[in-house]
Design goal:
The chain is an alpha/beta fold. Among the domains are: about 130 residues, ATPase, nucleotide binding domain (Nucleotidyltransferase, domain 5), CATH 3.30.420; about 200 residues, Carbamoyltransferase, C-terminal domain (DHBP synthase, Alpha-Beta Complex), CATH 3.90.870.20. It is about 35% helix and about 20% strand. The chain has 21 helices and 23 strands. Strands 15-23-22-16-17-21-18-20-19 form a nine-stranded mixed beta sheet, with helices on both faces. A five-stranded mixed beta sheet has the order 3-2-1-4-5. The longest helix has 29 residues. The protein is globular, with a radius of gyration of 23 Å.
Length: about 575
């Protein structure tokens, strides 16, 4: 049985395909269109998934979509009447919902088949149920408390529940217009970070400030006795009018959501080209502090309701790796699982898993502790591109490949590392990575200015052999998807300055020999020569989606100041 899943007509559009309950392929549309956070119908992603399975669309049994316009419909109508939303706005929303309903028509047009040839049944899954399924059914837990929290999906921003075996039970939810994701996004926009998905910049900026504006920030959000929260509507535009959003075949956009009352409260909005002042840094720290308080408030109440020690988190706010790293410290949970794609792209997988397990009742498979479900290329495909461009290259066997790569890193080089199947999710996990020596004092500024060409405050991640986590970090845990930030031990911070953030933390990726032997071997070789079981790892891109193809990797290498490009066992040097 083939099930095709998708996140469609929303930011981070994506598709995946399962065969008899096994995930075969998954990819974000942005990796193909080369437009970050691409929104619309994921036609190219669907084509990739079908090609990976070697089947036409006519052989698919089910198609799942991580949105159900019929959910919370009475609440939507009541809200529209209460807020006197115009007929024009209602018409626009209706048209968007209609496109979601016509998924079958979209597939017929994209693949040029007759309606009678498309046997797949369309199954719509509520957005946050898909989020929770993407975490719980991918986790190793037989039972778990569940939290999904983001901006909005199907008129809901937060959902808590319980997962047991092949079932998910919803306990409670937060309905529009209250949203922790919108709370964070509003401050992101106020601070001058205007692109969709820029919230991580506020998280990265926060350690440079002190949370001296917590009282002012708390005026915008109230934690309620039921373990949830409410926003103070006077500060958020969507309480008063429909906020313009664009989900049409390209880069998603959302108009600024702060009101004049927030400007009166905090002062002028920062423009994107203005210098970041200490006030901006302190505000970022305060927003992060309050966001964490709300998350832990929700989780502590959830623990009281379930009594279960396992926790699964998904949703856009689940990408807040700083908060994730504090969950075990701030709550009574003892194990936390966050999927590699906790954001909206991951709902493509979640929608399939919800159908397969919760609806159809099939038993669960063992957990996959990797995220490598994307595109892959042979060495002959790689060399064909290099030969066409007259690029000089050399192929090495493994032993010499690792030696040459590590020698380049030790001598101050920056390496583009392109291996195997591309990662699904926002993090490069050693298959589409840029690597550097974590011991270099200048590595962060070099990478930010000359390779990544981004803000100087942005941190870089340590990929660490999993056996050495306890030696370098104050918390010992497996973090395979770079989804948690932990404190680096004081005694180790000076040894790895390039991956130690200003507050002494690092967003680590634990590397398991059984899961990713080649990347493990590379770090192990680096350790043998330096004594450090860590490499600096950042995504292989330059203000673009992570590279997917050898051509994209080569283009990125040539236009930046990387020293070495390694694709499979082929090395290109400057």
């Amino acid at each position: 049985m083939y099930i095709l899943g998708m996140n469609a007509y929303h930011g981070d559009a994506a598709a995946c395909i399962f065969k008899d309950g096994e995930l075969i392929a998954a990819i974000e549309e942005e990796r193909i269109t080369r437009i970050k956070h691409w929104a619309g119908f994921p036609t190219e992603s669907i084509k990739f998934c079908l090609e990976e399975c070697g089947i036409p669309i006519t052989e698919v049994d089910y198609v799942t979509v991580s949105s159900d316009p019929s959910v919370n419909f009475p609440k939507k109508v009541f809200y529209a009447l209460k807020k006197s939303i115009s007929l024009e706005d209602l018409k626009d929303r209706f048209q968007r919902s209609k496109r979601l309903v016509s998924i079958k028509d979209n597939l017929i047009q994209a693949f040029h088949v007759k309606p009678s040839q498309l046997k797949a049944k369309i199954q719509r899954v509520e957005h946050h149920r898909a989020h929770m399924a993407s975490a719980f059914f991918m986790s190793p837990f037989a039972e778990s408390a569940l939290l999904s929290v983001d901006g909005f999906g199907d008129f809901t921003s937060t959902m808590i529940g319980m997962g047991i075996g092949s079932k998910i039970k919803v306990l409670d939810k937060v309905i529009y217009p209250h949203s922790l994701g919108v709370f964070y996004t509003t401050f992101t926009q106020y601070l001058g970070f205007l692109n969709y998905g820029d919230e991580y910049k506020v998280m990265g900026l926060a350690p440079y400030g002190t949370p001296s504006l917590v009282n002012e920030v708390k005026d915008l959000i109230t934690m309620t006795d039921d373990g949830l929260f409410q926003l103070n509507g006077k500060y958020f535009k969507h309480f008063h009018k429909v906020v313009n959003m664009n989900w049409e075949n390209g880069f998603p956009t959302i108009e600024p959501q702060y009101t004049n009352q927030l400007i009166e409260k905090l002062g002028p909005v920062r423009h994107s080209d203005e210098q970041l002042t200490q006030f901006h840094k302190d505000l970022a720290a305060s927003v992060q502090y309050v966001c964490e308080e709300v998350i832990f408030h929700i989780l502590n109440k959830l623990y009281q309701r379930t009594g279960w020690k396992n926790l699964c988190i998904a949703g856009g706010v689940a990408q807040n790796s700083v908060a994730n790293g504090k969950v075990l410290e701030k709550t009574d949970f003892s194990s936390v699982y966050i999927p590699p794609a906790g954001y909206d792209a991951g709902t493509a997988i979640g929608s399939v898993l919800y159908l397969y397990h919760h609806v159809l009742g099939y038993p669960r498979r063992p957990a996959d502790m990797h995220a490598y479900w994307g595109s892959q290329f042979t060495e002959s495909q790689i060399t064909a591109i290099l030969n066409e461009k007259n690029i000089v290259y050399t192929r090495y066997e493994d032993d010499e490949l690792f030696e040459k790569t590590v020698d380049c890193l030790i001598n101050g080089g920056v390496v583009g590392w392109f291996q195997g199947k591309m990662e699904f999710g926002p993090r490069a996990l050693g298959h589409r990575s840029i690597l550097a020596d974590p011991r270099r004092e200048d590595a962060r500024s070099l990478l930010n200015l000359k390779i990544k060409k981004r803000e100087s405050f942005r941190p870089f991640a340590p990929s660490i052999l999993k056996e050495y986590v306890q030696e370098y970090f104050e918390q010992a845990d497996e973090v395979p998807f770079m989804e948690k930030v932990f404190k680096i031990k004081m005694s180790k911070q000076a040894l790895i300055p390039a991956v130690t953030h200003v507050d002494g933390t690092g967003r680590l990726q634990t590397v398991d020999r059984q899961v990713e032997p080649k990347y493990y071997r590379l770090i192990e070789t680096f350790k043998e020569k330096t004594g450090i079981p860590i490499l600096l790892n950042t995504s292989f891109n330059e203000n673009e989606p992570i590279v997917s193809t050898p051509q994209e990797a080569l283009d990125c290498f040539l236009r930046t100041q990387m020293d070495m490009l390694i694709m499979e066992n082929i090395i290109v040097e400057r």
